[in-house]
Design a protein that fits this description.
Blueprint lengths: L12 H7 L1 H18 L4 E5 L4 E6 L4 E7 L1 E2 L5 E2 L1 E3 L12 E12 L5 E10 L2 H16 L14
Antiparallel strand pairs: 1-2, 2-3, 3-7, 4-5, 6-7, 7-8
Helix pairs in contact: 1-2
Length: about 150
C-alpha cells in the first residue's frame, strides 16, 4: 500500500518569529553585532530578560547604548521591522531598525550624564550616525565612533 503523505507547508519567517521570539531576538542581535564588528566598531552586548542592549564605544568620555523599541510576541523586543519587497529598480533596505539610544558622557568630575531618544534607520551605521547628529544638535558636543580597525570591504 503506497500512501502519500500530505506535505505541510513550511512556516513563514513571520510565523517563526511569532513562535520563537527569544530565538528571533538573539538572531537579530547577532546580525547587528556582526555588522558592527565588520565596520570595525568596538561593541559589547548585555542580554536582558526579554531584550538586549548593545554598547558602542565612542572616542573620549562617551558611550552609546542601543536597545530595540518595538515589542513582539511574549513581550520580547524586536530590533527589526521587515519591509515588504519593492518592485522598483532602486535598492531598498529589507528592514528598518527602531532603536532607543542613550549617549553617556563622563565629565571632568567623573560623573556620568546622558541624553536619550529614539532613532529609526535602515541599518546599524545609519542609526549610529543619526544618533550622533541628534546628540550634537541637542548638546553642541560632537562625539565620534571609536574604530579599532578599518571596516571590512
Amino acid at each position: 500500500m503506497n500512501s502519500r503523505r500530505k506535505q505541510t507547508p513550511s512556516p513563514s519567517s513571520h510565523q517563526l518569529r511569532q513562535l520563537l521570539p527569544d530565538v528571533a531576538l538573539k538572531m537579530e542581535t547577532r546580525v547587528l553585532l556582526t555588522e558592527a564588528r565588520d565596520l570595525g566598531l568596538v561593541v559589547e552586548e548585555d542580554r536582558l530578560k526579554r531584550s538586549s542592549r548593545i554598547w558602542v564605544e565612542l572616542k573620549g568620555n562617551y558611550l552609546m547604548s542601543l536597545e530595540p523599541v518595538d515589542m513582539g510576541p511574549d513581550r520580547y523586543r524586536e530590533w527589526m521591522t521587515f519591509l515588504p519587497p519593492c518592485k522598483c529598480p532602486n535598492e531598498h533596505y529589507e528592514y528598518s531598525l527602531r532603536v532607543a539610544v542613550e549617549i553617556h558622557f563622563k565629565n571632568r568630575a567623573g560623573l556620568w550624564s546622558y541624553e536619550s531618544f529614539t532613532i529609526e534607520g535602515g541599518d546599524l551605521m545609519m542609526v549610529i550616525d543619526f544618533a550622533l547628529l541628534a546628540y550634537s544638535k541637542m548638546t553642541g558636543r560632537k562625539p565620534k565612533v571609536f574604530r579599532h580597525r578599518k571596516a571590512l570591504p
